UniProtKB/TrEMBL annotation:
Keyword Isomerase (UniProt): yes
Organism of derivation: Paracoccus aminophilus JCM 7686
Protein name: Phosphoglycerate mutase
Coiled-coil residue spans: none
Binding, substrate: R11, H12, G13, Q14, T15, E16, W17, N18, R65
GO molecular function annotations of the record: isomerase activity; phosphatase activity
Entry keywords, A to Z: Glycolysis, Isomerase
Length: 190
């Protein structure tokens, strides 16, 4: 059995840069109309899960797209922002379009679908992300609703489920869904 409390994880809604396949990393762009709709869907899912969840802490990444999503999801309820929940820093790849990176850096983009995050020049890499995610999770004292980012959400799941970091590429993450990790097991609500 895992040592972490129940987690209800959400990726921020679609952003303008997501729609353009532009890599955000630590930069930001606003939610699209679809992104706001996805956040409203997450709000409904959270309301439906509330009888199972009970009292819960609410957190969001300090980045604008996650805060904007959290404001919709939590509908006036207070939440804390935490810098440890921000997206992985992708260094020199920040702001680039994915299709351009694949062409300009074939040696990095030839392997598994998400391995490139661990090789981005000037980036944080998985070890740095794992360290800050563990520090955040170690401080939790009870169940938590968390709005974060795609790679960070995968890392939180891997740590909470005690899986090797090499498996994060196998983990689906959907915008508009709630990913529950309870007693070391994952369940997605859509």
């Amino acid at each position: 059995m895992t040592r972490f409390p129940d987690l209800y994880l959400m990726r921020h809604g679609q952003t303008e840069w997501n729609a353009l396949e532009r890599m955000q990393g630590r930069l930001d762009s606003p939610l699209t109309a679809l992104g706001r709709k996805q956040a409203r869907r997450q709000a409904a899912l959270v309301r439906n899960l509330h009888p199972q969840i009970g009292e819960v802490a609410r957190y969001a990444s300090a980045q604008g797209r996650a805060r904007q999503t959290a404001e919709i999801v939590f509908a006036g309820e207070s939440f804390a922002t935490d810098h440890r929940l921000v997206e992985i820093d992708i260094g020199d790849f920040t702001g680039a379009r994915m299709q351009d990176l694949v062409v300009s850096h074939p040696q990095i983009f030839h392997g598994a679908r998400l391995d490139w995050y661990d090789h981005a020049p000037g980036g944080e890499h998985f070890s740095g992300l794992e360290t800050r995610v563990r520090a955040f999770l170690d401080e939790l004292t009870g169940p938590a609703l968390i709005v974060t980012h795609g790679i960070t959400l995968r890392m939180i799941r891997a740590v909470a489920m005690e899986l090797p970091i090499s498996r994060i590429g196998e983990m689906p993450v959907r915008q508009g869904a709630v990913h529950a990790v309870r007693q070391g097991r994952h369940q997605m609500f859509e």
